[in-house]
Automatic annotation (TrEMBL):
Keyword Transmembrane: yes
Key words, A-Z: Membrane, Transmembrane, Transmembrane helix
Highest taxon of source: Bacteria
Annotated TM spans: 49-71, 83-112, 132-151
Protein's name according to its UniProt entry: DUF4149 domain-containing protein
């Protein structure tokens, strides 16, 4: 099924915009000087933290149409790559979205008081982030499987 011109432009923009947003978020996040504690860093650099995490959220949103574009490119010959890579990538998007959401919450409660923020951080780290950390790799593995699928089905530049 061929895509109409506006759909191709939108998917192309997502394929370029997703990695660009991720790269920019990582560059901005790397520029944040690290303080003695996470909350000292949040207090001193909350706007940079927010911008970085907004870009991470943008990256995750743009990954959804990017995944659809790659899914379309794989076609019928790459059925296994589509299913495995697509499932891993989808799980990775959800997990990274949850982690980014937790980071937004931590950034929002940091100004409310260090004891509250530390308490919430401890509870969230134990109950939410610890189980998610092992699934964080799913996104990278899913994208790798999709890239291998594009190569194997000869839909990627060789």
């Amino acid at each position: 099924m061929a895509l109409a011109r506006p759909e191709r432009w939108a998917l192309s923009a997502a394929l370029v915009g997703a990695p660009a947003a991720y790269l920019l978020a990582q560059i901005i996040f790397a520029m944040v000087p690290r303080e003695k504690s996470l909350f000292a860093t949040l207090d001193a650099h909350s706007s940079t933290w927010l911008i970085s995490h907004l870009l991470l959220a943008t990256w995750l949103v743009l990954l959804i149409p990017s995944l659809a574009a790659i899914w379309q490119l794989l076609g019928r010959g790459g059925w296994g790559f589509r299913v495995v890579g697509g499932a891993l990538t989808a799980v990775g998007i959800v997990v990274n979205g949850l982690i980014t959401g937790v980071d937004f919450v931590l950034g929002a409660i940091a100004p409310m008081g260090r004891s509250l923020a530390t308490s919430v951080h401890k509870r969230v780290s134990e109950s939410v982030l610890a189980p998610l950390d092992s699934w964080d790799l799913a996104l990278s593995l899913g994208l790798l499987v999709l890239a291998i699928g594009l190569y194997r089905t000869r839909n990627a530049p060789q």
